[in-house]
């Protein structure tokens, strides 16, 4: 847990420092920039993409690290109940998936969390890259929640490791712009969140945005009444995105990072 907290604090401090110095540069520049920000910032911030990739690949190891710590110290409900590894692993996987589902619902309904999450929804198309398009702050909060769950329940490291891998894979899968045979899609939808199922979640129509929250398992949406089979306008006719941030300029990397802290044209954002 210690290195993760440290890394989180380090990142928040670095981001705040970056924002502070960048704002300072704008308000009181020392010298006139020769090429300006426009051609440079997207590229310089492109490095943040690489960093974000690292966050996605390395930080999930922190959740496994927390699980290893919990296992080593006998921390968490599953250890106190003396569950067999196979049972604890299965329950742990299911619990993590339910927590991710609940977290997603909360991110839609708590205004400041929605501001972080809506950047994911502001993509004007949905394809495999949308599955990677999360604000780094959302990834960090998500990681913190996962670590808390892992420690509280004492989820076995193997379950956490498998869960992280599967979650990454299913996010890429269910955001992808692929067509499945209708019969296959219908059956698959009982086992895993399919692209058609998750595409409804990226509809501009609010009621559709607030449905199909699942990432891995499709069961929670059915259980809690948030499952929606099809978008009203159909998959060909539906509009992807939000009522705000519809300008193509908003697709730029730097705009993505600042979207949580901006409003757009007085439009409601859902
Ligand atoms: Zn969402
Ligand atoms: Zn999505």
Q: What does this protein structure show overall?
A:
By secondary structure, the protein is mainly alpha-helical. Helices cover 62% and strands 0% of the residues. It has 14 helices and no strands. The chain has helices spanning 2-27, 41-58, 60-73, 77-80, 85-109, 111-121, 136-153, 157-175, 182-188, 195-201, 206-209, 219-223, 234-237, 253-258. Helix 3 (60-73) packs parallel to helix 7 and helix 5 (85-109) runs antiparallel to helix 7. The mean pLDDT is 84. The structure holds zinc ion (2 copies).
Write the layout of secondary structure elements.
Blueprint lengths: L1 H26 L13 H18 L1 H14 L3 H4 L4 H25 L1 H11 L14 H18 L3 H19 L6 H7 L6 H7 L4 H4 L9 H5 L10 H4 L15 H6 L12
Helix pairs in contact: 3-7, 3-8, 5-6, 5-7, 5-8
The structure holds zinc ion (2 copies).
Sheet of most strands: none
Ligand catalogue = zinc ion
Q: What is the straight-line distance between the termini?
A: 37 Å
Number of helices: 14
How much helix is in the residues? 55-70%
Name the structural class: mainly alpha
**Percent in strands:** under 5%
Shape, principal axes of CA atoms: flat
* Low-confidence runs: none
Q: What multimeric state do the chains show?
A: single chain
Radius of gyration: 20 Å
Say how many strands there are. Answer: 0
